[in-house]
Design brief:
Elements: H1 2-33, E1 38-41, E2 52-60, E3 68-74, E4 84-85, E5 93-99, E6 107-116, E7 119-122, E8 126-129, E9 136-138, E10 144-150, E11 153-156, E12 172-173, H2 177-182, E13 187-189, H3 195-201, E14 204-205, H4 207-210, E15 221-223, H5 226-235, H6 242-246, E16 275-276, E17 282-283, E18 288-297, E19 304-311, E20 318-322, E21 332-334
Parallel strand pairs: 12-13
Antiparallel strand pairs: 1-2, 2-5, 3-4, 3-6, 6-7, 6-8, 9-10, 10-11, 13-14, 15-21, 16-17, 18-19, 19-20
Length: about 325
């Protein structure tokens, strides 16, 4: 009897040990399989009317092999792989995905994803706006401008010609040199006060006109800031080559030269509209184009304003700052 009791206890003891081992093994297996991959979503780049690039970085596979990764997207926040998706390999680390078939002028949410045996993990949502289809825009004066998509921006493809703010209120047309020099209000003029120059090259404005709260650009557009100009120049390869890609090709407006390198491959069609000095004198038509930015340089006294200029015989785009009393051309960029 005593021996039987010992054997029974040993059996119970072994049974309990086996059961505990089974439970622990089951728990470990379960915990391992229930860990999703951990990852982040990369900021979107190369956004066009119909495409964009994003991706992600997988920092943990969750303890199991990643079998699929990519990005998913949709028009509502936190899309899943049930929505549109790419498939870009099965490794951990950083990856890039190209999304195509997007609708122009549409807001999308993008998330990177990675899948293992436990399921699918996601990075945070990133919102983008695809570019609108390039078309045209009309100002309050009835002037129509073609638009062009360059990188992630939409620009007018010609210089501004309006004589009114978008509210319909007139901007002062100042022809007299002394009056221009002394103006404390927004003003415009045609180069040499010749309306034909305004038709060909657009009008010249002092900075008080473009900085007015009534806004000189059509609704949905604004005068480009220094940062927006820099984005444009950088996208086109930097200051040493960008002007060649921005300037109108040929010599219909630019002074004849063989070294200007003008291709207008961007479609921007920059023209040499010249300038009006603070004294009221005109200069540089056909040789130089000058464009205001909306950004002040507060490191100078008196405060000046950043602008960009291009000349007829080089591919360089130059930035500089100068008096608010100059008359320069204006390009509007679409709100984002």
């Amino acid at each position: 009897m005593t021996l039987m009791k010992k054997n029974n206890c040993s059996g119970v003891y072994l049974f309990l040990l086996f059961g505990l081992f089974s439970v622990l093994t089951s728990c470990n297996t379960k915990n391992k399989s229930e860990l999703l991959p951990i990852l982040t979503t990369t900021t979107a780049t190369e956004i066009t009317e119909n495409s964009a690039k994003s991706g992600g970085t997988i920092t943990s596979d969750g303890g199991d092999v990643v079998t699929a990764r990519g990005v998913c997207w949709g028009t509502t926040e936190n899309p899943t792989i049930v929505s549109n998706k790419t498939t870009d390999g099965s490794e951990t680390g950083t990856f890039t995905s190209a999304m195509t078939g997007l609708t122009p002028g549409t807001a999308y949410y993008i998330r990177a994803y990675a899948t293992n045996s436990a399921g699918t993990g996601y990075g945070a949502s990133v919102k983008i706006m695809t570019l609108p289809v390039a078309g045209s825009v009309t100002d309050v004066d009835g002037n129509t401008y073609q638009s062009v998509n360059i990188g992630t921006q939409t620009w007018m493809a010609s210089n501004l010609k309006t004589t009114k703010y978008r509210t319909g209120e007139s901007i002062s047309n100042v022809t007299d040199a002394t009056a221009w020099s002394n103006a404390t209000f927004g003003a415009w003029c045609d180069y040499s006060n010749d309306p034909l120059n305004g038709v060909s090259y657009g009008r010249l404005y002092n900075w008080l006109a473009i900085n007015d709260v009534r806004n000189i650009c059509p609704v949905g557009w604004h005068v480009a800031s220094q940062a927006e100009w820099t984005t444009l120049i950088t996208y086109l390869g930097g200051e040493s080559v960008a002007a060649g890609k921005l300037k109108e090709a040929g010599f219909a407006h630019w002074k004849t030269a063989t070294s200007g390198g003008a291709t207008n491959e961007s479609g921007f069609t920059a023209l040499p509209g010249g300038k009006r000095d603070p004294s009221g004198a005109f200069g540089s038509l056909g040789d130089f184009g000058y464009w205001w930015s909306l950004t002040e340089n507060t490191t100078t006294l008196p405060i000046t304003v950043w602008h960009w200029f291009m000349n007829y015989d080089t591919t360089n785009a130059h930035k500089d700052y100068d008096s608010k009393a100059f008359g320069r051309s204006v390009r509007c960029v679409k709100d984002r």
